[in-house]
């Protein structure tokens, strides 16, 4: 029963990942693309998490951690770039 739920979760995450890729490529606005890339990172973390449970291993734990850090830093950098036009503000006094 648990395996069926996990496989169903993998299928749902796969569909969600494909929809995020489609939105990132065809998004009408830049904001749609940013949100799609952020959602893609979060869905990929969930997908790998379910895969780890299904395989009864913790081999991908570091991958999940690095993906989480990259998704967070990427989201913050893109948000700052879209707000001010620069990522690193050198004249911030």
UniProtKB/TrEMBL annotation:
Residue ranges the record marks as coiled coil: none
Membrane topology: Multi-pass membrane protein
InterPro entries in alphabetical order: MrpF/PhaF-like (IPR007208)
GO function term, MF aspect, one: sodium:proton antiporter activity
Keywords noted in UniProt: Antiport, Cell membrane, Ion transport, Membrane, Transmembrane, Transmembrane helix, Transport
Domain of life: Bacteria
A Pfam entry, by short name: MrpF_PhaF
Compartments in which it is found: Cell membrane
Segments passing through the bilayer: 6-25, 34-54, 60-82
One GO CC term, this protein: plasma membrane
Family recorded in the similarity comment: Belongs to the CPA3 antiporters (TC 2.A.63) subunit F family.
Name assigned to this protein: Na(+)/H(+) antiporter subunit F1
Organism: Salicibibacter halophilus
Lineage, opening ranks: Bacteria, Bacillati, Bacillota, Bacilli, Bacillales
